[in-house]
Amino acid sequence: xxxxxxxxxxxxxxxDLTLPDSExxxxxxxxxxxxxxxxxxxxxxxxxxxxxxQAVRQGAQDYLVKRQVNGEILLRSxxxxxxxxxxxxxxxxxxxxxxxxxxxxxxxxxxxxxINQFKTEFVSMLSHDIRNPLNTILLAAxxxxxxxxxxPQDKKLSHFQHIRSAVKSMSQLLDEVSFIGQADxxxxxxxxxxxxxEKFCFQLVNEAxxxxxxxxxxxxxxxxxxxxxxxxxxxSLLRHIFGNxxxxxxxxxxxxxxxHFDLINQESCVVFQIQDSGIGISQEDLPHIFEPxxxxxxxxxxSGTGLGLAIVKKxxxxxxxxxxxxxxxxxxxxxxxxLPLIYE
Length: 344
What we know:
Elements: H1 2-7, E1 13-16, H2 28-34, E2 40-44, H3 49-57, E3 62-65, H4 71-146, H5 153-184, E4 193-194, H6 197-209, E5 218-223, E6 232-233, H7 235-251, E7 258-265, E8 269-275, H8 308-318, E9 322-328, E10 332-340
Parallel strand pairs: 1-2, 2-3, 5-7
Antiparallel strand pairs: 4-6, 7-8, 8-10, 9-10
């Protein structure tokens, strides 16, 4: 039977359950499995009509009682079975398409709910982070307006400095939010230019040291190999990456501690490693640190938007690189950034 199906094309199967070698109703399932798309008409004796009905229930399209069959009845039954089977196959195909469509709609609905949830949380967190500098501006401006004649010059200067600092914080927050939006939309601008990598990193370290004066942190930069002077980099992306990582290391490290910034040249890439001995990150927080507005639970009152590491990750990916992190709460954190070399 298997060979026959492989050699010829059939329109319908006429299955006689009364033949000597027939196994009765048990012969139907293997046949349906062998030719699932072919209609089957069952032939039975008069006293086996109940058996034929069971066969139809199990997948046959029609049944005929032998003593009642003539040419016209047989032809009508075969035609009916073929049409019914085709209708069932079409219905099955439609159902399959509908199931796929329903799964896609459900997936899109889940995504839409996740996006709406993120938007709600995003607006809530953004409003919270903007409210603090706004309150500072309102308070300082009110004091200057209501007590201008009574305030000494140094107090006035202090209030103006608070206003400028608050405006700067708001501007930085909006810039970071804008950058995340551009990154998610795939619109990060990417401009390659020749950069002396050692000189550039040394400059970043010197700039970062200006923020360590009040904490007396020792920031050590080490370059392990000679670097090719004609490699291409995007300076803006590099500044986003290592400016954020260095600032975080300084922010979350105790006074008098040491931060190491190592630059390692490899055959086809450059490895940057920034290691501190600060407050560290718990194992529960580590999987989420590159998500927008996510901050470790142990940051306490240390200020921050929770966008810095999300921006770092986006910039590393834009440079076709990779970033990894090791951290232990109360011990310190080490970020390792690997960027491919691009030659002029």
